[in-house]
Design goal:
Shape: globular
Largest sheet: 2 strands, antiparallel
Distance between the termini: 89 Å
Number of strands: 8
Amino acid sequence: MIGANARVMLAEQNAPAVIAVTGKYPEGEKPTAQDFVNVYGADEGSNRFEHFRITTSAAKAYSDMHAASNQAIHAELLHSRPGPGSSLEVSERYEVKAGAAQLIIAARNADPVAYVGNLFPGDAPDWSKVKTPQEFQAAINWVWAAQKRLGFSRTLAVPQNFSDSLGARYVDESVPLQQRTIELSETLKAIRNPEARFTFAGQVFQSALARIRQNAADNPKISPAELEAQEKALQVNLLQMAEHPARVRFDAGSWWQKPLAAANDTVRLIANGATFGQADKFSAGMNSLFSDKSYDELQAAEQAETEDANDRAGSAGIAANLLGAFASGHGFQSAGLTFTGKLGAEALEGLPGFLARSTTAAADGAMFGGVDAALNGRDIVREMGSGALLGAGGNALAEGLGAIGRKVVAKIAGRPIDAKSSFGTDVETDASSYRADPKANENSTLPRDAGEAPLGPEGATNASDGPGLHLFYMPHWTDAQRLAADLKVAALNAVEKIVTPSTRATTSASVRYKAEGNEVPIGHDVDHVHDLQLGGAEATHNMAPLDSSVNRSLGPQIYHQIKHLPHGTRIGKVTIGDR
């Protein structure tokens, strides 16, 4: 009897956990229904055994499903769902599986990184040993891929305790702010996947936010207004750091390091532009001769350095790339290795010269586009076509702008222009033909498409496809927010827009979008890309994250411009500009 008592009590206490982890309980140790009756009596023994049986069945279901993807778990539950007339046994099995599935999904949502670490202990990174940026990047790559493979509805970049320690460190005022900024931006800079980087920043934000709120609760001297200001500063700083980690790291560095870093970045970006983006490959190839690392590892490191250089340089990085491309292209042309240089089109005048230069520029563009595509693994035919269009169009634009520029310079200098324009006509030199209209700029706004009149109520223009809309940037928007607004307008111009009553689902867009496993970065709303009020679908395929300020500004702007239009009115082009 003593052996039976011990076996029953140990099984009640340990069997569910052992089965959940291993899928089975040791042979000969699992008690029977009679064992329970012998220990507890007929009535209590039967009840306890029934509870034990169901609990161990749930543990076995947990073990069977704990390594399955979310999609497979949902499919299994759907397959097991009892139908009309199903037996009690079938219903019981389903309830057991559903309970186990609920436990699994809850554990995955609570800390998905820890979950995959426990699931694959031999392969998962040991976060206590992650020290270098390369190790950090490799660890995040692994956990990110594991979560995606299992179809987790919530995907994180690091374990929760890891982000908690970093969040606490970032708001620790005993450490100089410069040092804290450098440490965190270095960590973010190591994450090359932008989605993972923003997710990681979001984790640190939540952890840091909890810490500063706790600090405020413990310190009555911190007013609600001060706390709100701290929270806002934290959000802005981490968003900026996630978007431009290398630039933030550069700005926080010592003054004497900045000229050296800027010079190195300029040389790297010019070299990259001059070699059709191949400088990283050339450098990795040379370094591989003297390094124990593989060529792929060295190339990845060089490409990361170039990405960081572009991030640090901002718009100056584009200029450096263009300068490098111009330098190589100009050298080819001077040597007679381009069609423009070889055929001497630069020397021709008038309309024949313009046509010759546009034709040869198209040929040069096609050649450079093809070379660039071949070196970078893109579609050669498509890139040659794009290069030809850009070459010819760029020449026409450059020569047209050149003619305008010469005219303005002559006007300012008060002298006539002797040379003819590229189009074979005399540039206007009569001063009377260039008089400013004193009312021309009164209360004017410049649309995003320069030269077009504002559309919508501010300056309605009825195109053949219906009235247009002209939206405005908010004065406080950052460059990133203005770019988000530009992309929103571009998306609207890519679809047919018809004034339509907005009919929304009972469940919010954010809930439905996230339910399909999508992430929404901090500071963003879930936006209908094609607005419902302009005929867009109330479906997740028409949703995407959009900066909250942009979303909450453009939507009402559109509404106020169309609210008096009849339903069914077709809307023309949408533009955007400053007030």
